[in-house]
């Protein structure tokens, strides 16, 4: 994308600010994990941490965020998902029982970057990273995963916009055009 996606603007607001504005209404603690900590210093209400081991991808970011979280469970989302839906998040929270992961599944598959993780995931994630694997789904076989099927939340987000992540200039232009 030519720049940190978190700072790409949608309707004049950086994507990360769209996310944080919603999170500040829902959560008592907000954590940003980044390799570019200096760029986030203006987000005073969020705690900013560097990945323990930089450039290992989103799994390392997930590990770092869970490690620093003050809570047993954390909702984790990618910085390029500016249209997350409060009602969908709250539905996922209600599904927490004794699971380690609560992850929605759309027609596109599992949505591991729009999911809830417990601190019990830390050791399995660490073992997967140490084995040289870096995909979030790689540690799922070692924890209790609750999959929330699309029919359980689609009424809250019929267009599945909560799960839209913006990865290319073409996707960004399409989103801007359709707002």
SSE arrangement:
Blueprint: E1 9-10, E2 13-14, H1 15-26, E3 31-34, E4 47-50, H2 58-68, E5 73-77, H3 86-94, E6 101-106, E7 109-110, E8 114-118, H4 122-130, E9 145-149, H5 169-178
Parallel strand pairs: 3-4, 6-9
Antiparallel strand pairs: 1-2, 5-8, 6-7, 6-8
Helix pairs in contact: 2-4
Describe this structure in words.
Helices cover 28% and strands 20% of the residues. The chain has 179 residues and is α/β, with parallel strands linked by helices. The chain has one domain (5-178): Spore Coat Polysaccharide Biosynthesis Protein SpsA, Chain A. Strands 5, 6, 7, 8 and 9 form a five-stranded mixed sheet that branches. It has a two-stranded antiparallel sheet with strand order 1-2. The chain is globular, with a radius of gyration of 16 Å.
Question: Which characteristics define this entry?
Answer:
alpha/beta, Spore Coat Polysaccharide Biosynthesis Protein SpsA, Chain A, 179 residues, 28% helix, single chain, two-stranded antiparallel ribbon, 9 strands
The average pLDDT value, as a whole number, equals 92
Going by CATH, the homologous superfamily would be Spore Coat Polysaccharide Biosynthesis Protein SpsA, Chain A
- Shape descriptor reads globular
Strand content: 15-25%
- According to CATH, the fold-level topology is Spore Coat Polysaccharide Biosynthesis Protein SpsA, Chain A
User: What is the element string, with H for helices and E for strands?
Assistant: EEHEEHEHEEEHEH
**Strand pairing plus helix content: what structural class?**
alpha/beta
| CATH architecture heading | Alpha-Beta Complex
- How much helicity do the residues have? 25-40%
Number of separate strands: 9
The count of helical stretches stands at 5
